[in-house]
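Pilot study result, target chain (271 residues):
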Amino acid sequence: MSLEWLLEINPILLALFATLFTWGLTALGSAMVFFFKSIDKRVLNSMLGFAAGVMIAASFWSLLNPAIDMCEEMGGIPWVPAVIGFLSGGAFLYLIDRILPHLHLGLSIDKAEGIKTTWQRSVLLILAITLHNIPEGLAVGVAFGVLASNPDVGALGGAVALAFGIGLQNFPEGAAVSIPLRREGFSRLKAFNYGQLSGIVEPIAGVIGASLVIFMTPILPYALSFAAGAMIFVVVEELIPEAQTGNETDLSTIGAMLGFATMMLLDVALG
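Predicted structure:
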């Protein structure tokens, strides 16, 4: 089916629809808590590995590579925005990680990161989950924002592939959030609400990302690279370490390989 008709829709609106889709799949994954009370550690590691693989592939195929090509077309030095934007994205997430109070699943409240606070454990948990959804929403928003200055079917296909890939990994990610919360003593409904709520930041970040690149076209290569750097920071800082806990680390590695291959396939086929 041709995607050309989508080019007639405002890119910001497309970014909103795309990130609502990714949020919806987070909620769908979170709904698994109504059917399962616990999740096998091996399955959890596989899901986290898959999510990491998708995000690594998306960072290059959907963000860094287009940023380099775009800079070449503008007559600039290709590696400059790629390097500066990438490192800036990582630095931005590093600062948020240091400042925003949050607590990773399975840790005691004294292991909370960021500025010290008296916030409840449940609030700190959901902030930790929400933290790594920011770059995902931002990446999708920037990818669709590119269409304002480059209304090309290839660019549209790449943005759609990115949204689909992020959504695909959000499903197991939603389950990987809500089910452990249930194990920590939350009711099924509360665990579901926290799980899906962690994804609500994606539509917000998506609209912001699309709006910024539309109104500031020259920063496009930097914005794409920034989103890539932010996603890689999350992968290395959170997803991979969490996926490698326990004895069955091979499963998380296989999951990462499958996630990377899936995202690469989507981007090459649709982009």
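One observation from the pilot: The CA atoms of residues 178 and 195 lie 5 Å apart. A full batch analysis is planned for the follow-on phase.
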